[in-house]
Design goal:
Blueprint lengths: L3 E7 L11 H18 L4 E3 L22 H13 L2 E10 L2 E9 L5 E6 L5 H5 L10 E3 L4 E4 L8 H9 L4 E5 L6 H10 L2 E6 L2 E5 L5 E6 L11 E7 L3 E4 L3 H12 L4 E6 L4 E6 L6 H7 L5 H20 L7
Helix pairs in contact: 1-2
Length: 319
């Protein structure tokens, strides 16, 4: 059963550093882009890393409390337009500053906060405190995880999101990500939506680019920086080991159109999705003993650990 979500990313056109009233004008722009995403019937709109102060004279000094100007303004817009908003910003709490992303719900509520786990040395030197958790948030269209920029270099972050069964990960950044987006999607089994100042990229669970749009930051043509696509969050990535032998039983019981299966033979992968009304991919996976890529890799790691432990035990020879 397909479960579609419409996602918008904003290739954010920043204002000059010395622009009078820069923050308020930036927030006005962001509200306008949220309204535009709403016109496209988007479920969620996301902005780049610390976009409220991006390219300001000192973006690392501009921390706000969670109830500050930025989150307040975007919460009002989310409520007005009935969509989720990913708002990346520096948050000040308990005397510390975190490079964060707030997930704001359709009613303007704070669904959750992600704090960048791996700040760069520049950030650490400026007093940015690392986060230590990789939460995944339940929305009305699926399970959404967040990570930020430099985090993409660290397996721990992707693994944490995968362990909590993220279906879509939003990645606000100051760089485009490139092939690393595909690597994460394939290993961890979730869709990725990468939003950078001048590029928006959507990657499916098999690591393939669905859409990638690059914006010329000097473009003054008036073209919209809002990039939108539709994702099926019920798709799952399987390894072809063991699963190919089990699929015939599924088709024998429910018919040849019961599931979408795309065998990526040279990558040993299968993209899988239920096509039965009211039946999810996860339900079919459980019923027929199929195994997602993330579950398969986890099982191999567990079995490897057990084998190493057994090999380390002393052998007793009976004479």
């Amino acid at each position: 059963m397909s479960r579609f979500a419409t996602i918008s990313l904003v290739n954010f056109p920043t204002l000059p550093r010395d622009e009078p009233g820069r923050l308020q004008k930036t927030l006005d722009r962001m509200r306008a882009y949220i309204a535009e995403a709403s016109q496209e019937q988007s479920d969620l709109v996301a902005f780049p890393e610390i976009c409220n102060h991006l390219d300001a004279s000192d973006p690392w000094a501009a921390a706000e409390p969670l109830d500050g100007l930025t989150v307040t303004a975007l919460s009002q817009a989310a409520r007005q337009h009935d969509l989720y908003v990913v708002c990346p910003l520096l948050i000040s709490e308990n005397g510390r500053r975190y490079n964060s992303a707030a997930l704001i719900g359709r009613k303007g509520e704070i669904v959750g906060i992600y704090r960048k786990n791996f700040p760069t040395h520049t950030e650490l030197e400026r007093g940015i405190t690392p986060g230590a958790e990789t939460p995944v948030f339940e929305t009305d269209f699926g399970r959404v995880g967040l990570c930020i920029c430099f985090d993409l270099n660290y397996w721990e972050v992707g693994s944490g999101l995968s362990a909590k069964r993220a279906e879509l990960v939003i990645w606000p950044s100051m760089w485009a990500g490139g092939r690393m987006l595909s690597k994460w999607a394939m290993e961890f089994g979730f869709h990725l939506a990468a939003v950078y100042t001048d590029q928006a990229t959507f990657v499916d669970v098999a690591g393939r680019q669905i859409l990638s749009v690059k914006r010329d930051v000097s473009d003054r043509s008036g073209r919209s920086p809002v990039v939108t696509t539709r994702l099926d969050l019920d798709r799952r990535l399987l390894h072809h080991d063991y699963n190919l032998d089990r699929l015939p039983s599924l088709f024998a019981r429910y018919g040849t159109t019961a599931a979408f299966t795309e065998w990526l033979r040279h990558e040993c992968l299968v993209v899988f999705g239920s096509q039965l009304p009211g039946v999810s991919s996860d339900q079919l996976i459980e019923e027929f003993g199929l195994e997602t890529m993330r579950a398969y890799l986890a099982r191999v790691r567990r079995d490897r650990k057990a084998a190493l432990a057994a090999a380390a035990e002393p052998m007793y020879v009976h004479e």
